[in-house]
Records
---
Amino acid sequence: MIAAKGAKYAAVVRITLKQQTAYRMDFLMRSLFLLLILYVFMQLWSAAYSGQGEGAEIAGFRLKDIIWYLVLTEAFTMAFPQLCTRIEEEVKSGGIAVRLLTPISYAGYQYASYLGEAALRFVVNLACGSLIGWMLVGPPELGAGWSSIAVLGLGSFTLAFLLNLSIALCSFWVEETRGLEFILQKLQFTVGGMLIPLDLMPHWLQQICAWLPFQAVLYFPAKSAVSGGAELGAYVAQQLGWIAVMAALCAWIYSRGIRRLNANGG
Amino acid sequence: MEADRKPAERSASAAAPTRAATMAASAAAADRRKGTFWRGTLPFLLTCWKLNLAGAMEFRLSFLMTAGMMFLNNVIWLLFWGIFFDRFPDVAGWELKDVMLLWAVSAGGFGWASVLLGNFTRIAYLTANGELDVYLTQPKPLLLNVLASRMSLTAIGDFLFGAAIYAYVGDHSWTGLASFLLALLMSGLFFLFFTLAAGSLAFFFGNAEGIAFQLFNSFLAFTTYPADIFKGLGRLLLFTIVPAGFISYMPIGLLRGWDGSFMLAAAGMLLLLAALSLGLFYAGLRRYSSGNRMAMRS
């Protein structure tokens, strides 16, 4: 029974992978933009560190660590699919009616599809990002940090999915969720530690961030990786905690929203 | 067309006009053009803007939310810069105030251009999908008609954000205000012409939506980081092929104090970019073709 259910979701992952590899040009474009953004960040951080003296270490980060931290956070961020847009379109067009008729959980289908796309994009992003990182600051010295990426990466995708799903499901009530998605994205950029590691933030802000779920998406895997797998256990525990909280929240929103959904079309 | 022109040329040569008559004729033509602008184009533009705004106001809550979210989105970016400058108070000679004004100029310039001429980001899409047909049939200046027929709601938030940041950290003297307005004007025009040029590639390469979007995105990204963090080849590109540097240097070259050589270069590049983008658009338009698609402006 469980194996049959698992096979359904595995099939969704496979189909998503096939769909994604069909659009190679789109992939190339995204990768080029990733390279450009990483180049900008590297220039910015190099300028910032140049004022601190040769080989400066700030809050445990050398320039090289910062660059590889950014390669990882960007590789994750640009791998996340645009779930809100997808679900919003399905609700508006009525396409959700067809999905609800199929013998597969709606959220489960979206999760499997999200995971398939995100994993593929992440691998490509990491390869492209590593190329420019290697060229500018030399090879990564992650050591055991690679295992952190593997372990915390899955949790990162899952939590990013749930955070986005909680907003995407609001399309059962409101017409436009893009604005909320934007805000979520920018919170990831800032208090989530995408643009700047939390360790470099003022102490009061670090304390606020510690109570928010955003750090578990990008900061945990990237920080643990560049510090050689440090605090892996604590990060995994916190990630699982936030996944449980967000999954419960999404289930609650879905159960309320689906009852008031009127779809015509599909 | 050819046949029509020849008799006119002949009659012109048969009765060669006097110098005074030529001057009077050119003055009359100039008056007609001026009259066309004041009596035709300007009221047309004002009507477009009025209707676009009325359309936006039809869904008032959605409009306020969309514009408000963009405003908030920009504020969150400034939060990042606040954190960054808290740790590094001086980056390549830039301070937090300079970066805030950079965002005001970039977002504000993009804002006014997208509010008044909102279709400039969709040229590639309109061309690739044959949606220029409907504009070609209308007795209005084509490019202006295309550009002004859409108003971006999110961009209203961008423009208001720019104004708010200027009110917060800008120089409130008359000179400061004039400098800021000039920076906004030039920034918007840089966005407009660069994106128009990128979008016009669709006339030549067919489905160029992807590349046009990436070019626009890259330009946008470069306008939001201090120009002085870029060195070498990157800096050269920023002031030539992707001229976003002319926006991102505004806080230093114009708002901190008038840098004559920078402003001259910016004006020259703007003129060049305008000529290039208009040339590309109209040259491309001659190649434009579409299927017998029935469409309405939406």
---
Amino acid sequence: MAEAFDKLYTYITEFPFVRYALIVGVLIALCSSLLGVTLVLKRFSFIGDGLSHVAFGAMTIAAVVKLTNSMPLILCITVISAVLLLRTGKNAKIKGDAAVAMISVSALAIGYLLMNVFSSSSNLSGDVCTTLFGSTSILTLSTTEVWLCIALSAVVLAVFVLFYNKVFSVTFDEDFARATGVKASLYNLILAVVIAVIIVLAMNLVGSLLISALVIFPALSAMRVFKSFKSVTVCSAVLSVICTLLGICISIVYGTPVGSTIVAVDIAAFAIFTVIGKFSGRVKP
Amino acid sequence: MALLTCKELCIGYEGREILHGLDFSAEQGDYLCILGENGSGKSTLMKTILGLVPALSGEIVFGDGLKKGEIGYLPQQTDVQRDFPASVKEIVLSGCASSLGLRPFYSKAHKKLAMDNIEKMGLTELKNRCYRELSGGQQQRVLLARALCATQKALLLDEPVSGLDPNATANMYELVQKLNRDDGITVIMISHDIQAALQYADKILHIGKSVFFGSRDEYLAKIGKAGFAQQGGADNG
């Protein structure tokens, strides 16, 4: 154990990219978990999943046209898809559901196709795997990407804090909010954009297939035990940051893939919180 | 001028007409009950009044200083709400959300208003409890307290007693009556409980195949002629 800590300490002090990974990891975990509570409660979890596939498709397009900085393009495409998905989701539930499934598989298929046809890379399946499961990209972040990530996270956090009360009212009861004159559509739009931003950020950390876990698990775990919106949100954020830090550290020391390790830790936390919730008896079965 | 007037109102969903030619009004301090069979368009009418669904034609006029968005709304509960992790305080306070405007946080006045309404609904001891742990009647009282945070003038209640046990139902009706009588709040209630409507309301709007609008006594006289049992049976179905 001491050996593991030594190894970790050396990595963190010696390699700047490990520090970047930790900073970016914490920020992404924080943002995704905050929004996760709202997404889960609004029954929007599937939109996060759909968008992550869209982001994958966008990334392959960026790779095909050989953009050096692919983040802005991916961000644009994902934000537009988020807005469109929310539009359709509002009118009819089933239609929205099907639309998400349709868009997500299309993006996945087209993305892989594009990569296959145009990519000159010698290790194609490795590339695809990296994008989907994010095995190493968190450790190869450039300083520009780190700063972009910090800036976007700051914006997301600011939006969440400033609109916290309105987000709560729209999440709890959209009809009531709308009827009493809260601009519910506007806040839904803001939410959609913020979700898209978080997903693009999180793609670096856990890869596009595992983003949903980052968004959903901390919120679900917190909901097992806590019973006010504020405490659930705070707990979810703290839990997510701890799990992500733990996951990154474990993966550094034992050489496991970053994304799946983080998700595994999240799952473990969920199991623990479920047990706590059962025993404390706060949540009705 | 009446608080709320509907003229030649035609309501429906997505261009499909449900009801047309609705003419009615509610004055300050009225207790108006909207009766009708399931599927007769009661909820659609309420959503149209609230501006959630556009009216197909006709107009809704707000008067006496009542503005759109100043009506307290007690909706029927949704699935999302039944297992929502939020405390009573948070939910009641969220009724003030529209008066926040561009400000991000609630002021002391908002919090006081919320606490006053919590007290008025007899929820003081439950204020830190989780919403999903409350009984149906308590949950309705929480939502009523929230609606009161959004309005000083008018309340719209969508079947406020559905799914409640007889005790909670009586309690709910008493609370609403008290708000109407003591605080002068205009109450517009959707219901299919005709007995309660006759007991508490002073105006009745009956929608369905035939539309009736008038005072309680006029309604009584009309259904007296048509045969009470028949009418009552149709309404409870």
